[in-house]
């Protein structure tokens, strides 16, 4: 589903004439239905990798291929369409639109893809029931707890059945009990849709919910040592 080859990215740096190399010839392969955790120290490039995979940033060299499409060869418009169709995002900040109800927020990706309003809301309602948010469907985000907001964000990320789910520290704002519930939900929904998934996290407990754990270092991605 996802193939990354010799990916490199350097950012300009006031203290270094050559810039700051974040990724150096990194390789990664993830199959459809596979859920992978990426760990590593802060600033090592985990979020940069997700941004490059999603086409939100461009690499200096290397290739990113999603379901047979080379992401970094697309122009801005086609990258936007690829993200809209094939990628779901779950972040530490929930990014729900404050003036839309929970149901409308979850239905939004379907509306952007051209689904009829009633069809989008029906599919959103089905997702809401799986998320355990039925009684909150018509509420605005401000009425929800942090755990409920993250569940709604997962629903929005997965309602259109993306090929790839990118989750960047999705439990960073949650207490331990809500974190466990959200991680279980994310795992089960990724499995249900057959998507490939990447979880970026500092938490060993969170990483343990995935099928494979990789550690990012200055030399690339490596199987994480068994603790």
Description:
This protein has seven helices and ten strands. It has 227 residues and is an alpha/beta fold. The chain has one domain (2-223): 3-Layer(aba) Sandwich (Rossmann fold), CATH 3.40.50.300. The strands form two sheets. A six-stranded mixed beta sheet has the order 6-7-8-3-9-10. A four-stranded antiparallel beta sheet has the order 2-1-4-5, covered by helices on one side. A hairpin with a 2-residue loop joins strand 4 (61-66) and strand 5. The longest helix has 18 residues, at 176-193. The protein is globular, with a radius of gyration of 18 Å. 40% of the residues are buried.
Q: Which short descriptors sum up this protein?
A:
4-stranded antiparallel beta sheet; 6-stranded mixed beta sheet; 227 residues; Rossmann fold; 35% helix; alpha/beta; 10 strands; 7 helices
Lateral strand order in the biggest sheet: 6-7-8-3-9-10
Helix % is 25-40%
Can you identify the CATH superfamily?
A: P-loop containing nucleotide triphosphate hydrolases
For the CA atoms, what is the radius of gyration? 18 Å
The CATH top-level class label = Alpha Beta
Number of helices: 7
Summary of the model, kept short:
By secondary structure, the chain is of the alpha/beta class. It has helices at 46-53, 76-86, 102-112, 117-131, 146-158, 176-193, 204-207; strands at residues 2-13, 16-30, 35-39, 61-66, 69-70, 87-91, 164-168, 196-200, 212-217, 220-223.
């Amino acid at each position: 589903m996802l193939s990354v080859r010799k990916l490199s990215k350097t950012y300009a740096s006031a203290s270094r004439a050559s810039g700051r190399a974040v990724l150096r010839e990194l390789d990664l392969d993830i199959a459809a239905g596979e859920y992978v955790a990426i760990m590593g120290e802060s600033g090592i490039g985990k979020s940069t990798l997700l941004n490059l995979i999603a086409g939100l940033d461009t690499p200096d060299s290397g290739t990113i291929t999603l379901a047979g499409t080379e992401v970094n060869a697309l122009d801005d418009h086609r990258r936007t369409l690829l993200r809209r169709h094939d990628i779901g995002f779950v972040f530490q900040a929930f990014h729900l639109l404050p003036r839309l109800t929970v149901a409308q927020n979850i239905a939004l990706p379907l509306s952007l893809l051209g689904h009829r309003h009633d069809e989008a809301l029906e599919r959103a309602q089905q997702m809401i029931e799986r998320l355990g948010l039925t009684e909150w469907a018509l509420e605005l985000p401000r009425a929800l707890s942090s755990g409920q907001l993250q569940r709604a964000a997962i629903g929005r990320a997965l309602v259109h059945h993306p090929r790839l789910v990118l989750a960047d520290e999705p439990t960073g704002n949650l207490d331990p009990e809500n974190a466990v519930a959200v991680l279980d939900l994310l795992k089960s929904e990724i499995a249900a849709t057959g998507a490939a998934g990447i979880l970026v996290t500092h938490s060993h407990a969170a990483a343990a919910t995935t099928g494979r754990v990789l550690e990012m270092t200055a030399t690339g991605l490596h199987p994480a040592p068994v603790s």
